[in-house]
Specification:
The chain is an alpha/beta fold and about 375 residues long. It contains seven helices and 22 strands.
């Protein structure tokens, strides 16, 4: 399952521009010296425990390429999480993570390596061990699912971009807690077929497995994302399954016409959907959960229970908020990467917030201590 791109410019890149924030690290595991790149966000002080995201590269790729291609760094600088980019080992001459399927025959223990990295990071940095997440591209997406199955006592949630589950991961999968899952995949992915093959499960089978495991019985909601870039020859829809045990959700960004690429990447390869940022959506998804479940993001459907009504949603310009406020409440409109875009006070039972100056995207409305998702189209 080779990546379909060659990132020649990475060969001349160094990390000198991030000398205080980007660290090349190694540890010994199973007699092999394993490498990984650590990115410390600009606001990291070590005084408070922070979340950590593993970001695994694709087959034949490497940690440095994945760091630049998916590029969570500006998001990490705003949201305050640490990034870890593991480096795969060679298998038949190609860098890989051992997930079965296309890596069948490999004997490398990448699950144990990941656990060892968690130990290393928690010894060296102030990590919130309840908020360790895993994502990745292609082989890295497969690896994230493997961790959800075999290291779930240390992984809070996972997200896969252009990856899936091999039969060797899928069949014996044994998670230890409800596990939020985000799957991003193109329907014309020629490397990891959307409809599966003998070595990779169909994406719908993967979604169904995690919906069933998380005990989600509600009908999913589907939102067609605005086609803000018609030149990418693809469209995207977000399918959300909510109401699982411990608040676990399963989300799927289905990209019709999308290929084996990272949506929203700065390096726009053929088949790249540019209607949303996969990196922003992954952090938005992870930020809702710790290893015990949902940690504070309230769905729009819960507004009625809180005697708050927000409409229209989706919206083209403004949103109205009605409630029986007994006192003034402060509000914020927050971007998917955690930036505060608008602020104000709600002082009456019927207020209007103008979003016309914001681009088409998903935003978060924080009213008092509660946070609600808003789609601006």
């Amino acid at each position: 399952m080779k990546n379909t791109f060659l990132l020649f410019f990475f060969l001349s890149c160094t990390f000198s521009g991030f000398a205080q924030q980007t660290i090349d690290a190694t540890l010994m595991h199973d007699g092999i010296e394993r490498e990984f790149i650590i990115y410390l966000p600009a606001n990291y002080t070590g005084n408070e425990p922070v979340p950590m995201i593993f970001n695994f590269h694709g087959f034949t790729s490497n940690a440095g390429q994945q760091l630049f291609y998916s590029d969570f760094r500006t998001i990490a600088d705003t949201a305050g999480f640490i990034l870890v980019h593991p480096e795969g080992t060679l298998f038949n001459g190609n860098t890989h993570f051992n997930v079965g399927g296309f890596t069948a025959g490999s004997t490398v223990d990448d699950v144990g390596f990941t656990s060892a990295m968690i130990d290393y990071m928690s010894a060296e940095y102030n990590i919130n061990l309840d908020r360790v997440y895993s994502t990745g591209m292609s082989n890295g997406g497969f690896m994230s699912f493997l961790l959800a199955c075999q290291l779930s006592d240390r992984i809070a949630a996972v997200a896969s971009v252009t990856g899936s589950m091999t039969p060797e991961t899928f069949n014996p999968c044994n998670p230890q807690h409800p596990t939020p899952v985000l799957q991003i995949h193109g329907t014309v992915d020629a490397t990891v077929p959307y409809n599966g093959a003998n070595w990779t499960k169909p994406i719908n089978d993967v979604i169904e497995y995690w919906v069933d495991f998380n005990n989600i019985t509600t009908t999913p909601t589907t939102t067609v994302l605005p086609d803000i870039n018609i030149l990418d020859l693809s469209t995207a829809e977000q399918i959300v399954y909510e109401g699982g045990d411990n608040g676990a959700t399963v989300e799927h960004f289905k990209i019709t016409g999308g290929g084996h690429t990272w949506p929203g990447a700065a390096l726009v390869l053929p088949g790249t959907n540019m209607d949303f940022s996969a990196s922003e959506e992954i952090w938005r998804f992870f930020s809702q959960f710790d290893i015990n479940g949902e940690i504070g993001i309230t769905s729009v459907e819960d507004l009625v229970e809180n005697q708050i009504n927000v409409y229209p949603n989706p919206t083209h310009s403004t949103i109205n908020i009605t409630s029986d406020f007994s006192r003034a409440l402060e509000y914020e409109v927050i971007s998917p990467i955690g930036e505060t875009l608008l602020t104000g006070s709600l002082r009456s039972s019927n207020e209007e917030i103008d979003l016309s100056g914001l681009g088409a995207n998903i935003y978060y409305l924080k009213v008092g201590t509660e946070v609600f998702k808003i789609l601006k189209n």
